[in-house]
Specification:
InterPro entries: GerAC_N, Spore_GerAC-like, Spore_GerAC-like_C, Spore_GerAC_C_sf
Strand content: 25-35%
Membrane topology: Lipid-anchor
Structural class: alpha/beta
Keywords: Germination, Lipoprotein, Membrane, Palmitate, Signal
Number of helices: 12
Radius of gyration: 26 Å
Family: Belongs to the GerABKC lipoprotein family.
Distance between the termini: 86 Å
Oligomer: single chain
Strand order of the largest sheet: 4-3-2-6-7-8-9-10
Number of domains: 2
Number of strands: 15
Helix content: 25-40%
Subcellular location: Membrane
């Protein structure tokens, strides 16, 4: 009898799971508005505009998205305003992407980033980016033949970071850079194309305030300045001609970048040399030199190395002189050498401004590929 009772209880439990209980859980999920992307824009001096993307499913099972936009003076006010626009309870546990309009970013984004970080429902691995113009426009525009905008943005940013065309960054990295004062953050910079979104370099920050932008080419050289593996390619114009009289080119890929930072103190000021050994493969070459000859390869190494050295130096000096932003964490390295005991924001900026900064590149071609 006990066995029969146990079997009946088990059958009822299974029935509940597959029918009534499952449908109740489905109804509960239907009552939640799970936010997958967020945008912040500056409205006026006192208010911000907040936008949320909420995936939704139609009765036919097709996915569509709801985009809600509200205004408020704080994140709490925004949440309250947005909640009143939806018949569902808004929850933030699935946020993948957070966008900041450029006007907002140039005024500082720490209060809103910090609020996201302190929300226990939100993970710290979501991607942050700055938009040209208002972030709300990126969420409301239609993108034919693309997935929903939240998934589209997430996949695109992840792919660009995996290919090292932009630095790896997320909410955790951003707040770590701002609070630890070791280095300044950079975030992907997005602009709108005709029917798509384009990653157009990076926004450069000093603490949590956007102070400038690097274009896609400069961003690639910033990736090399960090060191490590760089999967992008560099197209170098050579001081020689092709057979039809056009400037010759060489394309270098599969680069492994080894960095050595040499730091000293000269007349009370930092002297910093960034030395790079770069191994790479020439995958395309349109000149006339025979790259089977070691001497010709050596000459090509010198030309490519000088080109990369000049480009990397230009980016490093632009960060220092134009933006006063230190994403490489050079002054923290200077402090760690014992040249200063305590580093305040003001002292760090002063030392960075005075630093004598240079870049040296030694290029090594390990392989030659397609020759035109």
């Amino acid at each position: 009898m006990k066995k029969r009772t146990w079997a009946l209880a088990l059958a009822l439990a299974v029935a509940c799971t597959t029918t009534g209980c499952g449908s109740r859980q489905h109804r509960q999920l239907e009552q939640l508005g799970v936010i997958s992307a967020v945008g912040y824009d500056r409205s006026d001096r006192e208010n911000i505009i907040g936008t949320v993307v909420i995936p939704n499913f139609t009765e036919t099972g097709k996915e569509k998205i709801d985009v809600l936009t509200g205004k408020g003076g704080s994140s709490k006010e925004l949440r309250f305003a947005l909640s009143r626009m939806s018949e569902r309870k808004l929850v933030s546990g699935q946020i993948r992407v957070v966008l900041y309009g450029e006007k907002m970013a140039r005024g500082g984004i720490l209060p809103y980033s910090d609020t996201l970080f302190r929300d226990v429902e939100i993970g710290s691995q979501n991607y942050l980016a700055v938009t040209e113009g208002k972030s709300v426009d990126f969420f409301t525009k239609r993108y034919p033949d693309k997935p929903s905008v939240d998934i589209y943005l997430y996949r695109m940013l992840r792919k660009e970071m995996e290919q090292n065309t932009i630095p790896h960054t997320n909410l955790h990295h951003f707040l770590h850079d701002v609070y630890d004062h070791g280095s300044d953050p950079v975030l992907p910079y997005l602009r709108m194309g005709k029917e798509d979104i384009i990653v157009d370099g990076v926004a450069v920050f000093r603490d949590d305030v956007m102070v400038g932008r690097l274009d896609p080419d400069e961003t690639r050289y910033l990736a090399y300045l960090y060191g490590g593996n760089a999967l992008g390619e560099v197209d170098v114009t050579l001081p020689e001609k092709t057979r039809n009289g056009q400037p010759a080119h060489a394309v270098v890929m599969y680069m492994k970048v080894k960095r050595d930072v040499q730091i000293s103190k000269v007349q009370g000021k930092p002297k910093i040399l960034l030395h790079y050994d770069i191994d790479g493969a020439v995958t395309e070459y349109s000149g006339d030199a025979d790259l089977e000859e070691p001497q010709k390869v050596k000459k090509l190494e010198t030309v490519i190395g000088k080109n990369m050295e000049d480009s990397m130096r230009a980016v490093a000096l632009k960060l220092q002189n134009e933006f006063l932003s230190d994403p490489l964490g050079l002054i923290e390295m200077y402090r760690s050498k014992g040249y200063v005991s305590k580093l305040s924001n003001e002292l760090g900026e002063s030392l960075y401004k005075q630093a004598k900064l240079d870049v040296k590149v030694d290029m090594h071609i390990l392989q030659t590929g397609m020759i035109h």
